[in-house]
Design a protein that fits this description.
Rossmann fold, two-stranded antiparallel ribbon, 175 residues, 6-stranded mixed sheet, alpha/beta, binds flavin mononucleotide, 22% strand
């Protein structure tokens, strides 16, 4: 199957996740490519879609949201998976003891779950390099507890990403 892994990434962390998912799908025999969502003009040439973005302030970036909105009808007739990259750190729970991945779901998961009926919606840990942040993002990290909530480091969980990709490949094979 021809699979689009469409992504929106501000500093590259989500692009790395998208490339990894596409590679794992190719290794499993699928014809998968990772492309920035904003650059995809002929979405109808794909048979299945894995769409993801990093989350900022609880929301996907607009390129990914707009891609899904623009192609909602097409996507709703094909297998779709959504992912988000966001939470930072190594803790599985937030300060209130809630599941961090669940709490980090972007609002778009709810927006798209009914109309697209995705086969899966998954949050992955992300990465943050303070040296590359733009001015506004640097300022957000300076607010009280900003550094605690947004620690520096690469927390991407490649094992979880690979496992999720393998599950997609199995479903595409109809297993
Ligand atoms: C200013 C700022 C706000 C952020 N807000 C969120 C958020 O609301 N939820 C979340 O899960 N991650 C949040 N993050 C973490 C990013 O989503 C994470 O670093 C992500 O992996 C970056 O991916 P990208 O380089 O592809 O944009 C935030 C990061 C910054 C710098």
């Amino acid at each position: 199957m021809t699979v689009l892994v469409g992504f929106s990434s501000k500093y590259g962390a989500t692009e790395g996740i998208a490339e990894r998912i596409a590679r794992k799908l190719r290794e499993a025999g699928q014809d998968a490519v990772a492309r920035p969502a904003a650059s995809v003009d002929k979405a109808d040439k794909y048979d299945a879609f894995v769409i993801g973005s990093s989350a900022y302030m609880g929301s996907w970036r607009k390129e990914a949201t707009e891609f899904v909105r623009r192609n909602r009808e097409l996507l709703s007739g094909h297998p779709v998976w959504l992912f988000s990259s966001g939470p930072l750190g190594t803790a599985g729970q937030d300060a209130q003891g809630r599941d961090l991945l669940k709490e980090s779901e972007p609002k778009q998961f709810e927006e798209f779950s009914e109309s697209l009926q995705p086969r899966g919606m998954q949050v992955f840990f992300g990465a943050l390099d303070p040296n590359v942040l733009g001015r506004r993002d640097r300022l957000v990290r300076r607010i009280p507890s900003g550094r605690e909530l947004l620690p520096e480091g690469d927390f991407r969980d490649w094992a979880a990403i690979d496992e999720w990709s393998a599950g997609i490949a199995r479903e595409l094979r109809g297993e």
